[in-house]
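Page 47, continued from p. 46.
Same chain as before, 404 aa.
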Amino acid sequence: MKYTLRLLPSGDTAILKKHLIASGVDVEGVEIISQKARNWVIQIDNVSPPAANIIKQQLLSLGQEAAVHRDVITGNPDFSTVYIISDQRKLFTLESKLASQPFGLEELGKEISSLARTYMNVPRQIQLRDHIIDFTKGPLLSGILNITPDSFSDGGLYIDPERACERAFEMVEEGASIIDVGGESSRPGSKSPELKEEIRRVEPVLKILTDKLPVPISIDTRKSEVARMAADNGVEIINDISGLTHDPKMLDVAVETGAAVIIMHMLGTPETMQNDPYYTDPVTEIIKWLKNKIKEIIERGISKYKIIIDPGIGFGKRLGDNLDIIRELSSFKGLGFPVLIGYSRKSFIGLLTGHDPDKRIYGGLAALSKSLQQGVNIIRVHDVKETNDFIKVWNAINGEVIKQ
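Result:
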């Protein structure tokens, strides 16, 4: 008998599942075996040479791997970064292997297992007052509705309440699962409007939409008074680009109204955020900031089941920082919360393509493809129809065979 051999794409669990099912493998076995097609990589900083050597030895004993500094074998440098490369199941076994080891490795083993569990248990739904945000069928689109005269891409287009409402319903028909309404431009260098002016812009629109739209509305604001007015008019999500830091009363409003919150990272303010921002390791630093902020707001009364995180593409970020965030977006899921990304028509796409905001959709779709691969939960976009079409085809090609 002549055998037929072929290679399957490495690391693609969906394709492996498809072939395992077709070959008659038990469904439960499919789930276990398919995980072997994907290795996890965990970065651990500030590891001493003895600890790094023990980590590597223990992983090798499990048939897995660790990448360490080339001089660790000779006891140098004093501290370095270790990369654990392991399949999902062996990460939990590693905890027991490290349990009796010195140099704080027992605690490290527990943290590794905790990180893996957190990543695997990101909430698949968020219960709002009148709606449910459901991620079980894939990522959701949040349609941008800027009721401003000066937004970088669509400023002035939807100042008229009637036109704004038309656009909201249009975006729902195009596939938006959330409508994000904002009355303040957050483009670099923009100045915040007075409170009365921001309310004047958005309140008429909210009064119409909240009774008629079949999807939830988020309010894009840094002002607690605007958020409270929006909640009084049926808005169920607060999208605060300052991460609830600009207005000290914003957190109280979120707690009192029961709204879900989108916590975004921004370096500085819209007026100052692009004045020479700097990071040594943008993804690690943003994750650390988000982790501290989430801990704070949960302690103040926000339900952990009503938190969405946003790394803040374009908000106090350089070109390379934005690209790093998109490349490593799945790292943010290690915090245990749904992840939103807002790349739509941003200046980093313009820097790469040379196009004005209204011509950046194709560059944005490249960012979308990588974001989907990284497991993004919500995509905040201007171009809903085109983005939805892209996701439909991407899912058809890459979608999971076994629905979770």
